[in-house]
Amino acid sequence: MISRRSCLAAVAGVLAPACGRKNAPTAASKSTKRPATGIPLPTIDPAAARCRPDQLAAFSSALGGNGVVLRHGAIVHQWGKPNAPLDVASASKPVLAHLVLLAVQSGRIPSLDDPVLRWLPALGNLNPALNHKDAAITWRHLITQTSCFGVSEAPGTAFDYCDFQISLLWKLIYEKLYAVSPEDADTKVLRPLLFDRLDATDSPFIRIRNAPQPSGRLAISARDMARFGLLYLNGGSWNGQQLLPQSIVHAALNSPLPPSLPRSKGIDADMLPDIRSYGGGKNQEEHLGCYSFLWWLNRPDPSGKLLWPSLPPDAFAAIGNGGVRTMIAFPSLGVVASWNKANLQYLPVSAGGREQMDAALAPLIAAIDP
Q1: Residue 324 carries which DSSP code?
Q2: Are 45 and 38 spatial neighbours (Cβ–Cβ below 8 Å)?
Q3: Does CATH place domain 45-367 in 3.40.710.10?
Q4: By the 8 A CB rule, do 51 and 367 touch?
Q5: For the whole model, what pTM was predicted?
Q6: Among 74, 222, 246, 289, which has the minimal tally of Cβ within 10 Å of its Cβ?
Q7: Within 13 Å, how many C-alpha atoms sit on residue 38's CB side?
Q8: What is the rounded CA–CA span in Å between residue 60 and residue 64?
Q9: Angle in degrees, 0-180, between the axes of helices 93-106 and 222-233, rounded to the nearest 10
């Protein structure tokens, strides 16, 4: 059992100050799936949940693919194959942050500001010409994409949206922190620590590539990904149990990087040879002051404009493959929407993509009576 003292210390570590087109699916061999268990999400008539069925239908028809909409924890609309566990690309990144936060809560990690060198000493041998900068990488750096792993800046001094550092984070979580093989990552970590607790029904699993050092991306159904969003919308509570302290969830969703933090210049630096990409490259996009613990937030950009101006300002999202695979939540509306294989063409945090995201979600917002 975690003592109250250790839990408060863990929360303090989370709240301590920081710093300082997405990956397409690739061929993979999946781990052995166990039979679906869990408890189905309740389904409610849209009208009873103060939702307009015609607008929900317009939303899913325009978006395409597979998806689900929840209102106050119940399914009000679903389409395609919402139970199919599919690769969600970078939308899985907040799940990695969640596993780190659980480790802080349990005391497995003393603080987010602990250097990860303790778990991976080889980092200390990298880049002698850059003063062995990687020895200073912390857990906080990794879950804010400010580790600068693979680029020339020192950790915490720049934002580098980099899928090599995400693979480094994956390795540290599963192989070092929890000491499991890639093949056992889902059955020994992902499910018992997260999705079994959320009563997931569609057997989410870690996708293992047919090569050494797998990237380990998550395959999950739209319905089960919606459960993850609902957990955070509800402040870490699930069916009356507090799975993550509300203060830690608040920190995860309210710690955007400062707009003044620069983007990496993209000058390459040495990396560990066994770290593969999570799917994309380095220095892929700006953070816009809207990035918090691997979540995208609908916050003002440096010009003062919301990331998605037509959406509620409390929205938070896990975005993968240019928005094709996304989960977005609106706490003020009690709504979670999750989809895969959508008809979106532009990254939702790029200039054209922000407008596209606004337009795509307009029917959903119109469907909801506050």
Answers
A1: T
A2: no
A3: yes
A4: yes
A5: 0.90
A6: 246
A7: 24
A8: 6
A9: 50
